[in-house]
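This part of the workshop introduces the protein records we will be handling. To make this concrete, we reproduce a full record directly below:
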Amino acid sequence: MHSQKDGRPSVPYVLLYWLPENCNPMQRMSYANAVELMRTSAQVNRVIEVEADEDIINIQSKLTGSD
């Protein structure tokens, strides 16, 4: 967590991106376009890809950058 110049906490947005394993190439392109559109319009600072249950269980390490 970061602080603004006036001392208020500033928490950056993080987008968790999950793509099902069985997506065909056309769906993958649609997902990729949607993620980039969401990232831009919501002003998300970071996109974290989620591929398995372990990625969610270990999300703290991904958020702190230690993974």
